[in-house]
Design brief:
Layout lengths: L1 H16 L17 E7 L4 H12 L6 E6 L5 H10 L4 E4 L14 H10 L4 E5 L3 E3 L4 H8 L4 E3 L8 E2 H8 L7 H8 L10 E2 L3 E7 L5 H16 L1 H4 L4 H11 L5 E3 L4 E3 L11 E3 L10 H16 L1
Parallel strand pairs: 1-2, 1-4, 2-3, 6-10, 11-12
Antiparallel strand pairs: 4-9, 5-12, 6-9, 7-8
Length: 302
């Protein structure tokens, strides 16, 4: 209870610090681009999401934006989103068919991408992200129809699941990601399967792929391997995203720390994209400082 109250107070303060995002011009869409961006948000992340999507749209010519509503968005919230993102498609989480995968934790958005990717290049974007500068590696991935994910260390590469196991085998944690990653080398197709320990807060999925079937099959397999209850815990979707990206031909890991999740020691100066993950989101006042600078640029462009 105390944790939830503390979280609400921190976001209320952050919303106040970035309130000028509501004064920025409406988002502009690309002409002729076939790129769909999907995000899962609730009322707590409304202002943060507007910052995330508007900062990304400066560098990526999105054709369509889909928001998965966790059912906390009111009519006034949706009206605000439509004012800032003309034509945005807001869908209740309950509208996404999901009979085989865990619910929540970005799963519905990921399954939707599995369908949308048949006809469009798709990007899964978390609300607590900021595109600070130009994104040439992302633009190149889209132009060459390659999937991508955020990396977590320098010169990171997509590896075999056996190599991935070597990295986590000594880690002592009951977190679903660690438990799942320790099990990957036991898969039936382990000799051919690949993995990347990326971050699903910003990931791209190549056009023309039937990802939905692969996502559902992987989820069923992991549920059987580590137990349905464990697989349903928050964080399992990131494992699935890492796996799907790694096993899509031509995929890449965005270079770290140019693209990174914020943590102590990660320098944002000179970075192009930062994911302000929950564990370190508001440390040192970096997130609001970066946000205000990007908002200043958005206001200038208007």
């Amino acid at each position: 209870m105390f944790h939830n109250l503390k979280k609400k107070l921190r976001f209320a303060r952050f919303d106040f610090e970035i309130r000028a995002i509501l004064d920025t011009p409406a988002m502009k869409f690309g002409n002729g681009a076939d790129i769909v961006c999907v995000s899962h948000i609730g009322r707590t992340y409304l202002s943060a999401y507007l910052l995330a999507i508007k900062s990304l749209a400066r560098w990526v010519p999105l054709r369509k934006v889909i928001i998965i509503d966790d059912l906390s968005l009111t009519d006034s919230h949706k009206a605000l989103l439509r004012e800032h993102i003309p034509g945005v498609d807001v869908r209740p989480i309950t509208s996404i068919a999901n009979r085989t995968c865990p619910s929540g934790g970005d799963w519905e958005g990921f399954l939707l991408i599995g369908e949308e990717a048949k006809d469009s290049y798709c990007i899964l974007l978390d609300a607590d992200t900021v595109a600070i500068g130009s994104l040439p590696e992302v633009a190149d991935s889209i132009a060459n129809n390659r999937s991508f994910t955020l990396g977590t260390w320098k010169n990171q590469k997509i590896v075999s699941v056996t190599e991935a196991y070597e990295y986590v085998k000594s880690l002592q944690s009951s977190h679903v990601q660690i438990v799942a990653e320790k099990s990957l080398h036991n898969m039936n197709n382990a000799s051919a399967a690949k993995y990347v320990r990326g971050c699903g807060g910003f990931a791209g999925f190549a056009k023309g792929k039937d990802f939905r079937h692969a996502i559902e099959e992987f989820s069923k397999m992991m549920g059987a391997m580590i137990g349905e209850a464990k697989w349903k815990e928050w964080g399992s979707q990131q494992v699935a995203s890492n796996y799907i990206v790694a096993n899509t031909p031509g995929s890449m890991v965005l270079p770290f720390p140019k693209y990174a999740s914020y943590a102590p020691g990660v320098a944002v100066d000179g970075a192009s994209f930062i994911h302000f993950i929950g564990s370190h989101r508001f440390e040192g006042g970096v997130y609001p400082r970066v946000a205000r600078e990007v908002i200043r640029q958005l206001l200038g462009s208007g």
